[in-house]
Amino acid sequence: MTSPNMHDWLNQHGDYLYRFALARLRDPHLAEDVVQETFLAAIKSPSFAEQSAPRTWLTGILKHKIIDVMRKNVREIAASDLMTDEDANMDEFFDEKGHWAEPPLAWNMPEDALEQKQFLGVLQNCMEKLPAKAAQLFLMRDVHETDNDEICKELNISTTNAWVMLYRARMGLRKCLEINWLGA
Amino acid sequence: MLDCKQASQLISQSLDRSLTLRERLSLKLHLLICEFCKRFSQHMQTIRVALKQMTSSIESNDSIEMPSAAKSRILQSIESIKD
């Protein structure tokens, strides 16, 4: 095991791995942590010296670390504020007959690059307004697409609860976008 | 017959699982007559695509670098478990 080699790897791939993690976890500190864990796991691996495509190999390890973090966060949702009543808190969206209380508006989708950028900015803000844990589950489901099935299998909270959480998160996000983007 | 609340739940779940044939049909029927839920469904797609864009824009943004403090921390921890 030679640490100069790992040194080079950190210089060559560290930023890439950090961006990869940041794009999925959306949390700089968590992103740093998973990259650190990735390098530690890499240096401890017996096959470390034989890797001919280190970036691919490291990214593979990183993905597992990211999923670990997400899984942990989702477990915390299950343990704390996951409500079991499917209809709780949805009253603001629908009347007693199940009709939209405030019908969704027609959105004019951003056409040029600037508008698109603004839209993404508003979306980012709206994501941040979601309850942290709901946002986490949402990111896991909608952003970390490649591993969706894997994650769902591994989730031991009931899938029904996960659907309810995701539904609420999407309803909240949609509403937030409608108010802050269209209203702007 | 689905109401909008049920329809919106199915639309959301269709992003997470395969709907049953029965669910798909009743949702399709509802969407034929309900402009609001059709919009809702489009919004869900829009959000989904936009979130993916956000991910790839972070991932490919070369100006985002790992903070140097984190890099030295990682180097230190590598050194500490060396040999």
Q: What does this protein structure show overall?
A:
The complex is a heterodimer of chains A (184) and B (83). Chain A is mostly helical. Chain A contains 7 helices and no strands. Chain A has helices at residues 3-25, 28-44, 54-79, 113-129, 132-142, 148-154, 159-182. Chain A is elongated, with a radius of gyration of 20 Å. Chain B has 83 residues and is mostly helical. Chain B has a domain at 4-61. In chain B, helix 1 packs parallel to helix 3 (35-59). The mean pLDDT of chain B is 92. The longest helix of chain B is centred in the middle third of the chain and has 25 residues, at 35-59. Chain B has helices at 4-13, 21-33, 35-59, 68-80. Chain B contains 4 helices and no strands. Chains A and B meet through helix 1, helix 2, helix 4, helix 5 and helix 7 of A and helix 1, helix 3 and helix 4 of B.
Low-confidence stretches of chain B: none
Strand/helix succession of chain B:
HHHH
Question: How many distinct helices of chain B?
Answer: 4
List the total number of helices of chain A: 7
Extended strand count of chain B: 0
Number of E-type strands of chain A: 0
The global form of chain B is elongated
